[in-house]
Amino acid sequence: MTTPDRSPLAPMIDHTLLKPEATRADVEALAREAEELGTWSICVSPSMLPVETTVTVATVCGFPSGKHTSAIKAAEAAGAVAAGAEEVDMVIDVGRARDGDYEAVRADIAAVRAAAPAPVVLKVIIESAALSDEQIVGACRAAEAAGADFVKTSTGFHPAGGASAHAVALMRATVGDRLGVKASGGIRTREAAEAMVAAGASRLGLSSSRAILDAAPSAGPGQDGY
Questions:
Q1: Three-class SS of residue 152?
Q2: Residue 192 backbone phi and psi in degrees, to 5
Q3: Mean pLDDT, the chain, integer
Q4: What is the distance between the terminal CA atoms of the chain, rounded to a whole angstrom?
Q5: Helix (H) or strand (E) holding 122
Q6: How do 203-206 and 13-17 pair as beta strands?
């Protein structure tokens, strides 16, 4: 049996473990698996830092609700960077985006950007499934104005759902090639992962990385990742 080629997808993956019940042993196993699979990074909760690994270390901020104050998010991001995080995935106040208050969204992101300046990579989770198309565009523009490096679809914890190819395509159309686009949340098959890439994703947040990478490539792009 021929082993599927992992190389097209593996370098795009943030191999993720954000379950609240995750243990130190679970995170260490995640890191070893990421090294074996050749993923770009691991993404873990800030309380699990530091992690010894040869791959990039990412963490989350204001997770998963985004309803923390900007000062708390900034302090959390700064602490995570001090503990070894090289990338920070922050959650916006989704209610502010739903209100159309994009200046508040921008200011919130800017506070985290100031606390975690480049070369730290800042990804902004907009919880796209909870937003209209207009709100997705507004949130993405706010993220770009605040100096973010990526916009990201979802936490994977919101009841509205996770990533969709439609949201990824709209986010890519909004930020062009100026920012990265990360698809995350509910991506459980290789077909779904490939659909996200086809729609414009440049990074994938996956918890089922091995199963997805070891599956045979699909014959064509899928329709939706959730």
A1: strand
A2: -65, -40
A3: 94
A4: 29
A5: strand 121-125
A6: parallel
**Bond before 159 cis per omega within 30 degrees:** no
Tell me the two tokens of residue 2.
């021929």
Q: Ramachandran region of residue 82, left (φ > 0), alpha (ψ -120 to 50) or beta?
A: alpha
Which residues are the active-site residues?
A: 89, 152, 182
Instruction: Report the candidate in 17, 59, 14 with the shortest Cα–Cα distance to residue 41.
Output: 14
CA 18/CA 31 separation, integer angstroms = 13
Count, residues in the chain: 226
C-alpha–C-alpha distance, residues 112 and 136, integer Å:
20
Ranges of residues in the chain whose predicted pLDDT is under 50: 1, 220-226
What ranges do the domains of the chain cover? 10-214
Give phi and psi for 221, each to the nearest 5. Answer: -65, 145
How many Cβ atoms are within 10 Å of 211's Cβ, its own excluded?
Answer: 12
Q: What's this model's pTM, rounded to 2 decimal places?
A: 0.94
What six digits make up the tokens of 183? Answer: 């698809």
| Ordered DSSP codes for 55-119 | SEEEEEESTTT--S-HHHHHHHHHHHHHTT-SEEEEEP-HHHHHHT-HHHHHHHHHHHHHHS-TT
Q: What element of type H or E holds 136?
A: helix 133-145
pLDDT in the model for residue 2: 53
Quickly count: other Cβ atoms within 10 Å of residue 11's Cβ. 12
Q: Among 191, 186, 198, 190, which Cα is nearest to 160's? A: 186
Q: Would you state the pLDDT for residue 4?
A: 64
| 10-214 under CATH 3.20.20.70, yes or no | yes
